[in-house]
From TrEMBL, chain A:
Entry superkingdom: Bacteria
Domain 4Fe-4S ferredoxin-type, first and last residues per copy: 185-214
Protein name (database record): Oxidoreductase
Manganese is among the record's keywords: no
One Pfam family here: GMC_oxred_N
Keyword Oxidoreductase part of the UniProt annotation: yes
Entry keyword set: FAD, Flavoprotein, Oxidoreductase
UniProtKB/TrEMBL annotation, chain B:
Pfam families assigned: Gluconate_2-dh3 (PF13618)
Organism: Acidomonas methanolica NBRC 104435
Entries under InterPro entries matching the protein: Gluconate_2DH_su3 (IPR027056)
Protein name in UniProt: Gluconate 2-dehydrogenase subunit 3 family protein
């Protein structure tokens, strides 16, 4: 392959598929440890300065190959779809960076529902701290729900939505605050300070938003890792002993094979499952593709008399963690609340799908953009039997069948959504909003290759190594045993650092 | 006639708060698309135009001028796609063609005329039934409802992306910063505008 630095037949120590939240940190750590590492990335390499806030054009970094969405509450992917490019979904993610609540690691022990993680928050905490330090996370100190949490940067200014949420929460006696945002407000390391442009989901042009492209991947390449963009992995080769020996990938229409000593799948919860189902590997448990989850991401919107200009400022600054275990809950687990600014097309799409309007009412609603104010929830989701990723019978890229994603809310998700809708409506009303409407919504692609101690009920061990294949590891959102309420990127990156440590330690040992 | 954006918005597009790339994207979008229909049949495009007049009416937003949302959606259907579809629907372009044919047939059944020939009242009654899920034919009621959700999403995206609409609504989202300097926004919070947002 043109431009490849490592000969394809010459096995690299470790091959990583995917360069998002899961793939990037482990790549950087292994490169630093002196291993010969290569990452294959299906999407292109972008130049941050060329990003445009135009939402239609910015769709180039969404996963564009068709996914089939089924179930009673099928997920509307579009702009919420995973990413495609060097940096993965973190190119267009929202940079909201809460830590997982300690209770969410043990939901089963607490409630008898869901599953426990094979370890608790203390295990992950040192790795989360390392991630935060390396990428840069802004926030208020002391942070109300964890006074010992340190931030590298002070919070950016509050936009109209953050002001409204804080005002509404104060009126109702709900503690709320500026939240943890993965961006820097002091320029350093060739990255600019946040300029409040509001286009985080269209890509940060000055490097203020903390992604993996401007942190772990940069370091990985400095330490000798090779990243190959435009390379879609579609085959995994094994030897008679069942070990992985290499990967087949397609680049500009031509197939190549890269030999490797160890393989790490970090293609995201949909694509990792798809690749394993397609190759039939690592699935003795029959669990690959199962336990698919998505956050309960209810949104509530209203109209303020003041001008809000929702495109301005870091979009989701305010947070409250007071609903993590609400006293009047008729569900297990909990949810976080964040304030919402939003770019116009994304917002209009929510109006279109969520409000059921048409005719002059629809046009009028859209004309109100500059007064719109929103709040969003992110809540835990239980695994259900029917919720899973399978292969459809339609061929996709490189003839790999397109993935079919079935997702339906269960009773717990419905109850949580109803509670969140009530709470968000009350906060917005207390903030002075009118014409309030709500939309059920879900976000993120979670599960499909659960980690655990039991090879019967999980796909990988608590460090991410396949129970079946000794030199195959998985490091992305697919390994989460439960969804937890927190936005996921921090924990995915932390798991990636932890895996790197374990992988280096176990190398050479069976 | 195609609508123009107000002069204040054109001045913003020309300013150093917008990059050359974004400016070019907006300039291209201000022009009608060529080569329609690309994905739909000529009949399908006609039906879509008639339907969109009822679903997302432009009223007197631009005087007599109109953004032809139908041809923009047709162009989008011929493009790379947006990464997903409802599994109960066929691929996007086919779903559009079949849904529009289903509506057209329902129009003939109930009101004696296909979509493009219906008067506004009959068209709106048809849309109300579409929203309720009581129109079926090539697609069933549930499929038609899902498709209606897709249609509205596509329509509002093409609408809000248009410079004339952003100008009319005073939206500053394109002005995140220029090529030389990425200025962003300084006036953050309710009822605060940058000096250069004053006329929007
Ligand atoms: C719109 C949006 C907003 C979000 N906001 C937040 C937020 O505010 N806070 C937060 O914590 N999280 C947020 N997230 C979630 C977060 O970005 C993801 O959970 C996280 O990036 C997932 O990491 P991952 O490693 O599983 O996959 P990804 O980051 O998606 O990376 C997977 C990579 O693998 C590549 N790939 C896939 N298949 C192949 C293949 N076969 N061959 C080669 N390469 C392949 C993909 O192109 C992609 O680059 C958001 C996500 C989205 C979509
Ligand atoms: S708001 Fe800040 S972090 Fe987000 S894209 Fe703009 S400059 Fe980057």
């Amino acid at each position: 392959m043109k431009g490849a630095r490592h000969a394809l037949t010459d096995p690299v120590d470790v091959l990583v598929i995917g360069t998002g939240a899961g793939g990037a940190p482990v790549l950087a750590e292994l490169a630093r440890a002196g291993l010969k590492v290569v990452a294959l990335e299906a999407g292109p390499r972008f130049t941050a300065r060329d990003y445009t806030p135009d939402e239609i054009t910015a769709a180039t970094f969404y996963w564009r190959e068709e996914r089939l969405s089924a179930g009673e509450t099928p997920q509307a992917f579009g702009g919420n779809n995973s990413g495609f490019g060097v940096g993965g979904s973190m190119l267009h993610y929202g940079a909201f960076m809460p830590r997982i609540d300690a209770r969410d690691f043990h939901l089963f022990s607490e409630t008898g529902q869901g599953v426990d993680w094979p370890f608790g928050r203390d295990t992950l905490l040192p790795y989360m701290e390392r991630v935060e330090e390396e990428i840069g996370v802004s926030g208020p100190m002391p942070y109300p729900w964890e006074p010992t949490r340190r931030f590298t940067d002070a919070p950016p200014p509050r936009n109209a939505a953050a002001e409204a949420m804080l005002r509404g929460c104060a009126a109702l006696g709900i503690r709320a605050s500026d939240g943890p945002a993965a961006l820097i407000t002091r320029a350093r390391n060739g990255r600019g300070a946040c300029v409040n442009c509001g286009a985080c989901h269209q890509g940060c042009r000055n490097g203020a938003k903390s992604g993996v492209d401007n942190s772990f991947l940069r370091r990985a390449e400095q330490d000798g890792a090779e990243i190959r963009p435009g390379c879609f992995a579609h085959g995994i080769e094994t030897n008679a002993a069942g070990r992985v020996t290499g990967v087949v990938y397609r680049h500009e229409g031509v197939d190549y094979r890269q030999a490797c000593g160890t393989l790490i799948l970090a293609a995201g919860a949909v694509e990792t499952a798809r690749l394993l189902l397609h190759t039939g590997l690592a699935n003795r448990s029959g669990q690959v593709g199962r336990n698919y989850m998505a956050h309960v991401s209810t949104q509530v919107w209203g109209r303020l008399p003041e001008e809000t200009r929702p495109n301005k400022g870091y979009p989701s600054l305010a947070i409250t963690e007071e609903m993590m275990r609400p006293a009047d809950a008729d569900f297990v687990g909990g949810y976080l609340i964040q304030s919402l600014g939003m770019m116009p097309l994304t917002w209009a799409t929510n109006v279109a799908r969520g409000r059921g309007l048409w005719g002059p009412d629809l046009t009028r609603a859209l004309a109100g953009y500059n007064h719109a104010v929103g709040l969003g929830a992110h809540g835990d989701c239980l695994p259900h039997d029917g919720n899973r990723v399978t292969l459809s019978d339609e061929p996709g890229m490189a003839s790999v069948p397109k993935p079919l994603i079935s997702f339906s809310y269960g009773a717990n998700e419905r109850a949580m959504h109803a509670h969140a809708e009530r709470t968000l409506r009350a906060i917005l009303a207390a903030a002075g909003a009118e014409d309030i409407w709500a939309m059920p919504r879900d976000a993120h692609m979670i599960g499909t290759c659960r980690m655990g101690n039991d090879p019967e009920s999980s796909v990988v061990d608590p460090f991410g190594r396949s129970h079946d294949i000794e030199n195959l590891w998985i490091c992305d959102h697919s390994v989460f045993p439960s969804a937890t309420a927190a936005n996921p990127a921090l924990a995915i990156m932390a798991l990636s650092l932890r895996m790197a440590e374990n992988l280096t330690a176990r190398r050479g040992r069976p | 006639m195609i609508p123009e954006s107000p002069s204040t918005f054109r001045a913003l597009l020309e300013s150093d708060h917008v990059t050359a790339r974004t400016r070019a994207v907006m300039a291209a979008r201000a022009k009608p698309v060529s080569g329609a229909p690309r994905a739909l049949s000529a009949e399908g495009l006609e039906r879509l135009r008639a339907l969109l007049d009822g679903v997302l009416p432009q009223g007197d937003l631009f005087g007599d001028a109109r953004i032809d949302l139908a041809e923009r959606i047709d162009a989008r259907l011929a493009g790379p796609g947006d990464g997903w579809r409802f599994a109960i629907l066929p691929p996007d372009a086919i779903a559009y063609e079949q849904a529009l044919a289903t509506l057209d047939a329902a129009g003939r059944d109930s009101f004696g005329a296909g979509l493009p020939a219906l008067d506004a009242a009959a068209r709106d009654r048809l849309i109300a039934r579409l929203a309720e899920g009581t129109i079926s034919g090539l697609l069933d009621g549930a499929q038609m409802q899902r498709w209606f959700s897709d249609l509205r999403a596509d329509a509002v995206q093409e609408f809000m992306a248009h410079p004339a609409v952003q100008g009319a609504f005073g939206i500053s989202a394109v002005a995140t910063g220029g090529d030389r300097e990425i200025q962003g926004f300084e006036e953050i919070g309710a009822d605060r505008r940058e000096r250069w947002e004053a006329g929007l």
